[in-house]
């Protein structure tokens, strides 16, 4: 039961990710409906069997306060796909301030990037132009949907249509 279940609000916006057990309880208590199951997976009890839910939708709209993605080292690495934004290396990764802190750079999503140790030392306390370097990708603030889509791409293809519908609106 290591699969996860995508929970959508009544308006089909992603709310969270829960365990299969929690999803089945929500459906049995009629607090949610199953929209999509994982193929060929079931949970069996002595008297019943249940399909493995992949995506459920809450039956009542829940006003969820904005939950931004936390700015931390692990999420910066995830956003940058565990590669240096200067050279693409996946080795000896660190965090770099695009605009150095000593020059007024803040610790924000758009100023922090993943850098390998070599590129970080080369750039040092300089602006990109001074160091003769450029970014392969522009840093951005990821959303919950961004990380859910990334997870779905590799672990839960059943989620993809539900996340794409939201991305288009």
Q: How is this structure best summarized?
A:
The protein contains six helices and six strands, in the order E-E-H-E-E-H-E-E-H-H-H-H. The chain has 169 residues and is an alpha+beta fold. Strands 2-1-4-3 form a four-stranded mixed beta sheet. Strands 5-6 form a two-stranded antiparallel ribbon.
Number of helices: 6
Content of β-strand: 25-35%
| N- to C-terminal distance | 33 Å
Largest sheet: 4 strands, mixed
Shape: elongated
Q: What low-confidence regions span 5 or more consecutive residues with pLDDT below 50?
A: 165-169
Order of helices and strands: EEHEEHEEHHHH
Question: What is the typical, i.e. mean, pLDDT?
Answer: 87
Report the structural category. Answer: alpha+beta
The main sheet orders its strands as: 2-1-4-3
Radius of gyration: 21 Å
Can you describe what's shown?
With 169 residues, the protein is of the alpha+beta class. It folds into two domains: 4-66 and 143-168, no CATH class; 73-131, DNA Binding (I), subunit A (Orthogonal Bundle), CATH 1.10.30.50. The chain is 28% helix and 26% strand. The protein contains six helices and six strands, in the order E-E-H-E-E-H-E-E-H-H-H-H. The chain has helices at 20-28, 73-79, 117-123, 128-131, 144-155, 160-168; strands at residues 4-8, 14-19, 32-44, 49-58, 93-97, 112-116. It has a four-stranded mixed beta sheet with strand order 2-1-4-3. Strands 5-6 form a two-stranded antiparallel sheet. A hairpin with a 5-residue loop joins strand 1 and strand 2 (14-19). Helix 5 runs antiparallel to helix 6 (160-168). The longest helix has 12 residues, at 144-155. It is elongated and about 70 Å long.
């Amino acid at each position: 039961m290591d699969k996860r279940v995508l929970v959508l609000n009544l308006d089909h916006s992603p709310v969270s990710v829960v365990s299969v057990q929690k999803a089945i309880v929500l459906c049995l208590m009629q607090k949610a409906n199953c929209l999509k199951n994982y193929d060929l997976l079931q949970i069996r009890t002595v008297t019943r069997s249940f399909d493995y839910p992949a995506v459920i939708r809450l039956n009542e709209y829940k006003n969820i306060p904005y939950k931004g993605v936390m700015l931390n080292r692990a999420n910066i690495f995830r956003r940058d796909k565990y590669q240096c934004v200067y050279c693409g290396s996946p080795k000896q990764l660190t965090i770099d301030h695009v605009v150095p802190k000593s020059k007024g750079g803040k610790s924000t999503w758009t100023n922090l990037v993943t850098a390998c140790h070599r590129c970080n030392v080369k750039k040092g306390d300089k602006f990109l132009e001074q160091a003769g370097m450029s970014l392969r990708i522009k840093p951005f603030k990821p959303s919950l949907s961004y990380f859910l889509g990334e997870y779905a791409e590799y672990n839960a293809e059943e989620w993809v249509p539900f996340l794409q519908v939201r991305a288009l609106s």
